[in-house]
Specification:
The structure is a homodimer of 407-residue chains.
Chain A (H helix, E strand, L loop, with lengths): L23 E2 H4 L32 E2 L9 E4 L17 E3 L12 E6 L5 E4 H4 L5 E8 L16 H5 L2 E10 H8 L7 E6 L6 E5 L7 E6 L2 E2 L9 E3 L12 E7 L14 E2 L5 E2 L8 E6 L10 E10 L5 E7 L7 E2 L1 E2 L9 E9 L4 E9 L8 H8 L11 E5 L5 E4 L1
Parallel strand pairs in A: 5-14
Antiparallel strand pairs in A: 2-3, 3-4, 5-6, 7-8, 8-11, 9-10, 9-14, 11-12, 11-13, 15-16, 17-18, 18-22, 19-20, 19-23, 21-22, 23-24, 24-25
Chain lengths: 407, 407
């Protein structure tokens, strides 16, 4: 189905009937009914004071796989039900290696040591007195999109792209703290360690720390326990596991520390049997969230195609959408403000004619990098990998309006 | 206490001891202890899949007054505990006139009628097919800041400025829907009506609808019940009650409809006994949230002063902070991106010398309007009003570090 060359929405378009939305003319429907909820007092204010979603909504994170033990698990964000760019804290994806510790913030300590002039121990009370910043950024697990070897027509976007969320993170810039302790000239890497039972630990080159935050708040409130309460490292644009949760220790060194999570795990196996190590950056990627797997179109007519695009290298500069399996592409509208290393919502009006359609998106970032096709991705990296899949993704609309995943 | 002319944070400032943060040198503290939560597996992923804050946090909306009946109540946002600019949905302030209705979205209808070419009834399924937008905006009740006649040294910023929140709102631009129904040339006002038991109803001139959204989502997910689920009108920059929740009806007319909520309520009584009517816009305003009433400074030294600024007329262009009761002012840093009709976080490093300090802020917006002093505000409007108080506000730091409200 070729994309329509004319505006799909506009004056008279709905009521003229051409686009088939079922909204009725008032005369045909009769007067507006007065529903029961308009005839009786509603409930009072929420108690105990922290609100929850409507019981008519089915908003929940979804466990990904059956974990080997309860503490090594992940859950994903239901993007098929979400709008805009912010992920509510209750729906932010999770990935734990040793469970979620219950940390008393009054007892928590952060130590900074190693190749520094003045090693330091800080309480949370100390830390919140430093100058702070707030920034909107996405966070994506490098294991998001499990499409290297497998596919499943029943997958929803929560299954394929749910290890991705976006929030406003507030905390102290790591650079501010490093200034305080005085990094020695020979230091070039740091180790970050979590206070969880896994002592989750990663090495990072100092050159990769642009914009790093010692974060104590997300979307205005204190970090959630599953996001590292009371303190996490947040590294914009880099694979999620580097943003060490429950941060207790930073050590400066002159080389990588070669921890378990960067030797046996979180490397990318190439076709020749070698492994890419320290693949930090999440490259440009996008996905259509409406319509997407599990959705059902009710009738032919006007719809809005909508999705998310992001890049670990900066701003998204363009997203193109195809409804004919890649034969032709049209530019989507990007929701302003388009922020660096943040989810960007894109949208395109679409008229569904009732026939089959294959809907895809591809993103380009400010470096000029464009999200690759699956074919190009596999040609470069083979199919041995677990992490860093960012190929173009598709949703098949069948003649009856059902929507299913296709590889 | 005059503001410090020199940078308050910088290389060596903490460990040199001059600013007195209690973070300890590593040698003095001994090795980092291994806490109990590092020695045992944490809990598994959250169940049933919608997460909640840490039990160590006391995050809750606060009922404002004892209501005449349960459905006519309000709760306020705890800005003294928040960071950044986003308000989590669970903490967004509430104001209800007839309680919170439990609306089945499948049964909800929106009718548009009156001076239109094609009156229309829409379901929620219809509405989400229209082109949509997402925008970050504050919402403030015109009754926020109850300072015209009263003051109370025990007030926190939740008491004084808690009928203020900020979220990313997603929905259909009202202009898009009005294009569909065809507004007749003689129409100049509209009526918006809620489906709650109060049938909350307000008139709005079409000239005041710039950026108006038929919103079905906040911060990514479906509207919360107390914010109008499944549909509200959202009017950026205008007093909160105009953003009709549980929106069921829009009627176009050629004059204001003179509803109860714009005749007996939501007007401003002036010194001469007349009342200002249709005072829609929330003028520029700001408040320091850290430190603020109820906080306790532990010791002299370096702190960050932080707060929120906003204007219903556009972007905030500057915020100045005084720590000497208005004798001198210094410009604060505004967190980017500074968005139109959105909360803007401002910050300023501060060194507390241990003596008394009176901390205030004043905001200026892109129209050049500057938040007035209380004296200037009362000179213009007297003290008969209930709504639209936007005077400069202060917090008194006592010699012992306790922080209290002052008028």
């Amino acid at each position: 189905m070729p994309p329509s060359p004319v505006p799909l929405f506009g004056r008279r378009s709905f009521l003229a009937g051409a686009l088939g939305v079922s909204g009725g003319a008032l005369a045909a429907e009769g007067p507006l009914q007065v529903p029961v909820w308009s005839r009786e007092q509603g409930r009072g204010v929420a108690s105990p004071g922290y609100g929850v979603p409507s019981s008519f909504e089915r908003l929940a994170r979804k466990p990904r796989t059956v974990p080997a033990f309860p503490g090594a698990a992940s859950t994903s964000t239901p993007h098929q039900h979400l709008h805009g760019t912010i992920t509510p804290n209750g729906l932010h994806f999770e990935r734990h290696h040793g469970g979620v510790p219950a940390i008393d913030p009054g007892q928590h300590r952060l130590v900074v040591h190693g190749l520094v002039a003045r090693p330091l121990i800080l309480t949370m009370d100390d830390l919140v007195r430093f100058p702070s910043v707030s920034r909107l950024h996405f966070l994506e697990c490098s294991g998001n999109t499990p499409a290297w070897q497998t596919t499943n027509p029943a997958w929803t976007v929560q299954d394929t792209h749910g290890l991705l969320s976006c929030a406003e993170w507030t905390g102290v810039e790591l650079a501010t703290l490093l200034d305080e302790v005085g990094v020695k000239p020979e230091a070039s890497w740091l180790l970050a360690e979590g206070a969880d039972a896994a002592a989750m630990t990663r090495s990072l080159p100092l050159s990769a720390l642009d914009g790093a935050i010692l974060a104590y708040a997300q979307n205005g409130e204190a970090l959630r326990p599953e996001q590292g309460y009371p303190l996490r490292l947040f590294l914009p644009g880099l694979e999620g596991n580097l943003s060490i949760k429950w941060l207790r220790r930073i050590k400066l060194g002159d080389r990588p520390f070669q921890t378990r999570e960067e030797t046996s795990k979180y490397t990318d196996l190439m076709p020749d049997g070698t492994a890419r190590q320290f693949t930090f950056t999440m490259e440009a990627k996008s996905v259509v969230t409406t319509p997407s797997g599990g959705h059902q179109l009710k009738e032919p007519g006007a719809y809005e195609i909508s999705g998310l695009a992001w890049s670990g290298r900066g701003r998204i500069t363009g997203v193109e959408v195809s409804v004919d399996g890649g034969a032709s592409w049209r530019p989507a509208v990007l929701q302003e403000p388009v922020l660096s290393r943040c989810l960007t919502r894109f949208r395109l009006p679409w008229r569904w004619d009732g026939g089959p359609a294959l809907i895809q998106s591809r993103a380009t970032d400010e470096t000029g990098y464009r999200q690759p096709t699956r074919e190009a991705l596999v040609a470069a990296r083979g199919t041995n990998s677990i992490y860093h899949y960012n190929g173009v993704y598709g949703w098949q609309v069948a003649a009856g309006g059902s929507v299913r995943h296709v590889a």
